[in-house]
Amino acid sequence: MKHYKTVLFDLDGTLLDTSKGILGAVKYAQQQMNLPSLPDSRLREFIGPPPVESYKRIFGVDEAIAQQAAFFHRKYGSERGLFEAQHYPGISELLQNLKNSGRFLGVATLKREDTAQKILAHFNLKQYFDVIAGIDTKEQLSKSDIIQAALKEMGQTNASAVLIGDSQYDAEGAEKAGVSFIGVTYGFGFSDAKDISPYASADSPSQLLALL
């Protein structure tokens, strides 16, 4: 198994279960904007992608309405939603083991960078990371852009780096950025190893350690 010098993590569905806060943020935005009611199965599609993109795609609204909805979405998230997340069992132990082995650790998330910093600090995970890279305030960066920005800030190359993530967005971003990818099935996107093939997969943080 390849030894990766640099390990990057997605946040939602990989480091933390943020589903409760994200669904709450969408429902708050729905109320504020009088958007139509949708089942939770559709609202779960908000987990992962940037909010503006999701409001346009899922509710079929234009850019201006999507921006307004995203404002309320972030308001709920920063004031309440980020505190509603939960650790995945074994994540802290995984990060500590990787840190002890001398790896460079980073976060590459489609969350806004300031929000990612706050949530990781609140759940005592920020201490493990050399860099936390997220989307810009205009939400114009892609996943591959964020991966490359994280590597540049750490002074590392893509040849010895891997991204850990739970969705096709993560897999595609890793491929475009030229880094390896390992998918996890305990998050929101992938349900089993077949979804992740031909990439390596893990069902838990403890299994991840064996792959790294």
UniProtKB/TrEMBL annotation:
Database matches in Gene3D superfamilies: HAD superfamily/HAD-like, Putative phosphatase, domain 2
Superkingdom classification of source: Bacteria
SUPFAM superfamilies (UniProt xref): HAD-like (SSF56784)
Example of a GO cellular component annotation carried by this entry: cytosol
A GO MF label: protein tyrosine kinase activity
Protein name: Phosphoglycolate phosphatase
Organism annotation: Hydrogeniiclostridium mannosilyticum
